[in-house]
Amino acid sequence: VETKLNQLHYLYLDRNKLTKIESGSLAKFPLLVLTLSKNQIADLEKDSLPTSLNILDLSNNLIESVSCFTL
């Protein structure tokens, strides 16, 4: 299973009522596209996103600002 997750490039988590992305929870995946729109995310923790991202959609969440240390 871990081998397959190492090939995960697209992850769509829209409309899941997510409130938080834990630090490191997605950073280990080689994601190119991550969509998290229409959730209830208010803040992103440092190192919560993969550095491999080309597209990130955080629209329609509760985020007011994003720290440069988050990205």
Main attributes?
71 residues; mainly beta; three-stranded parallel beta sheet; 1 helix; 13% strand
Describe it for me?
With 71 residues, this protein is mainly beta. The chain is built from one helix and three strands, in the order αβββ. A three-stranded parallel β-sheet has the order 1-2-3, with no helix packed on it. The model has no long low-confidence stretch (mean pLDDT 88).
Low-confidence stretches: none
The main sheet comes to: 3 strands, parallel
What global shape is seen? Answer: globular
| Distance between the ends | 28 Å
Number of strands: 3
Estimate the strand proportion: 5-15%
Which range best describes the helical content: under 10%, 10-25%, 25-40%, 40-55%, 55-70% or over 70%? under 10%
Topology readout:
Elements: H1 2-5, E1 10-12, E2 33-35, E3 55-57
Parallel strand pairs: 1-2, 2-3
Q: How would you summarize this macromolecular structure in one to three sentences?
A:
About 5% of the residues lie in helices and about 15% in strands.
